[in-house]
Amino acid sequence: MAPYRNLEEYNIEITNEVKDHFSKIMDDIGEDVTREGLVKTPERAAKAMLFLTQGYKQDAEEILKGAMFAEDYDDMVIIKDIELYSLCEHHMLPFFGKAHVAYIPNGHIVGLSKIPRVVDVFARRLQVQERLTHDILECINKTLKPKGVAVVIEAAHMCMMMRGVQKQNSVTTTSGFRGQFEKIETRNEFLKLVSADLS
Ligand SMILES: [Zn+2]
């Protein structure tokens, strides 16, 4: 047996249903779904869609609770430049960018890799950037009960770039702050650290 195998499991019934829908859409837009290059496309598209929306069946609070550790550390913890890929709920087109998350512990810290996982759980659904920001913020606030939590998301939206207003370089920034980050000095310290280029 291989030392490591990355297993992907798809529900066969749901995959087949979504596959049939994609096949119908391709036919409706004028494609010949029987031509060679497209034979497996409906299935691939179905699997891609199920992968990109897997967050519906995942529990972000459980992910955090599974890696909380008692610790006296009470300075700011920042995880910046978390890659983010989501789908806008209005067009089902991607929006993507970076999330920056910070919290000030209140007796507990959390395994650092769990914060990007929480971002993914909420990003892998149909979303709007504003709600995504608050989903991440409230999940950390509720589960970790920190002294403060901050989330900033910068993202480009394909629905703006490829269609509609066709603005190629506009980036949307959303932010949310709770607890000590509602104080202007703390918030500014966080924003300064997030925008600093450490490389
Ligand atoms: Zn959109």
TrEMBL record:
Residues 19-194 form the GTP cyclohydrolase I domain. Its EC number is 3.5.4.16. The keyword GTP-binding applies. It catalyses: GTP + H2O = 7,8-dihydroneopterin 3'-triphosphate + formate + H(+). Pfam families: GTP_cyclohydroI. One of its GO terms (molecular function) is GTP cyclohydrolase I activity. Keywords: GTP-binding, Hydrolase, Metal-binding, Nucleotide-binding, One-carbon metabolism, Zinc. Zn(2+) binds at C88, H91, C159. SUPFAM superfamilies: Tetrahydrobiopterin biosynthesis enzymes-like. It is an enzyme of class 3 (hydrolase). It comes from the Bacteria. Pathway: Cofactor biosynthesis; 7,8-dihydroneopterin triphosphate biosynthesis; 7,8-dihydroneopterin triphosphate from GTP: step 1/1. NCBIfam families: folE, PRK09347.1-2, PRK09347.1-3. Homopolymer. Belongs to the GTP cyclohydrolase I family. This is GTP cyclohydrolase 1. The lineage of its organism: Bacteria, Pseudomonadati, Bacteroidota, Flavobacteriia, Flavobacteriales. The gene is folE.
